[in-house]
Amino acid sequence: MKKERQAVILAHYYVDGAVQEIADYVGDSFYLSRLAVDLPQQTILFCGVSFMGESAKILSPEKTVLLPDKTADCPMARMGTVEEIQNVQSTYPDLATVCYINSTAALKAHADVCVTSSNALKIIRQLPQQFIYFIPDQHLGRYIAGLIPEKTFIYGDGFCYVHTSITREALEGTKRQNPQAITLAHPECPKNILDLADYIGSTSSLIKYASQSDEKEFIICSEPGVLHPLKKNNPDKLFYQVPSALPCQDMKKINLEKIIFSLETMANQVEVEESARMKALKPLSKMLELSL
């Protein structure tokens, strides 16, 4: 069916392990967003949540983008309004609005540049503006702000319910039970979790760090789906999940049956109205440009 549809299957690390196994490419948001542009296939089946398929369509409007389940959404992507953005933009004259890729096209359309957790630090350091309005994820924004003290940050109120479900008490308990383990954390976690981490990075960075490290035991402060590639790539190492961590219910909506149905029927195509697409394209293109 992939050959017949000229399709490629992209999957985020947070989907079920069975889905990751049949994907052509598995990665984080930044890796997959670049792939969507460069791959020759004309049909992209995106195993992820709605903003991912939307971003792929914005960057590659000539391609057909399919979502196995169009109800798979990211609550954080909608944590912000155009009115809030406009209010902040009118208050600070020397301001860059930086929009996490985990956002709707409507929010992206009012940003100067998009970022992912992989490239946010690199991109924001290149911006000439003194004031950085980081939306929607407040925790990623505060983490990056701590690394760029020369700039002044204003934050949105958004958050990832998965990463904020990881509590300090639960993490401390896991560390006590596994005193030899190194703690790896995604920057969407709150500061009180990041303060206990030995390494902080994007999903792909966490996987790379654990794979290259000489250590043998790791506590993972991120979505449980990341344990699949970690265990697969490192069968000689042990990985522990913090017990309070919730799975992403929307990512887990994606399954093999829905993938087959999408390829058979070409159902659940992603569409973005052209004027909205053009507005959202600018910050996404700026992201790709500054990430080189």
Describe the structure.
This protein is an alpha/beta fold and 292 residues long. It has three domains: 2-73 and 252-273, Rossmann fold (3-Layer(aba) Sandwich), CATH 3.40.50.10800; 76-160, Rossmann fold (3-Layer(aba) Sandwich), CATH 3.40.50; 166-245, NadA-like (Rossmann fold, 3-Layer(aba) Sandwich), CATH 3.40.50.10800. Helices cover 42% and strands 17% of the residues. The chain contains 15 helices and twelve strands. It has helices at residues 2-5, 17-22, 29-38, 50-59, 82-91, 105-108, 120-126, 138-147, 161-164, 168-177, 191-194, 203-212, 227-233, 256-265, 274-290, and strands at residues 7-12, 25-27, 43-47, 64-66, 95-100, 113-115, 131-135, 152-155, 182-185, 199-200, 217-221, 238-241. The strands form three sheets. Strands 2-1-3-4 form a four-stranded parallel β-sheet, with helices on both faces. α2 (17-22) links the parallel β1 and β2. The longest helix has 17 residues, at 274-290. The radius of gyration is 19 Å and the shape is globular. The model has no long low-confidence stretch (mean pLDDT 96).
In short:
The protein has 292 residues and is of the alpha/beta class. The chain contains 15 helices and 12 strands.
Overall structural domain count = 3
How many helices in DSSP terms? 15
What is the CATH class of the largest domain? Alpha Beta
Strand adjacency order, main sheet: 2-1-3-4
Count the E strands.
Answer: 12
Mean pLDDT: 96
Shape: globular
Determine the fraction of residues in helical runs and give it as a percent range. 40-55%
Secondary-structure content class: alpha/beta
User: Approximately what portion of the residues adopt beta-strand conformation?
Assistant: 15-25%
